[in-house]
Design a protein that fits this description.
With about 55 residues, the protein is an all-alpha fold. Helices cover about 90% and strands about 0% of the residues. The protein has a domain of about 30 residues. The protein starts with a helix and ends with a helix.
């Protein structure tokens, strides 16, 4: 990643706020997805799928 691009994002408070909100939204959606997966998939299969993701 270009370092000028990273530091340019810090110059604009709006970009910094939008970037923070995007990260929060992604974290929220990831937790919701994992909750839905836990509801739909049996626990044994869920552990197997988690093992595949970690490899």
């Amino acid at each position: 990643m270009n370092h000028h691009l990273v530091f340019h994002a810090f110059d604009s408070p709006a970009r910094l706020i939008l970037g923070g909100l995007a990260i929060l939204a992604a974290a929220f959606l990831l937790t919701r997805l994992l909750q839905f997966e836990r509801q739909l998939v049996p626990p044994r299969a869920s552990r197997w799928l988690l093992g595949l993701r970690l490899r």
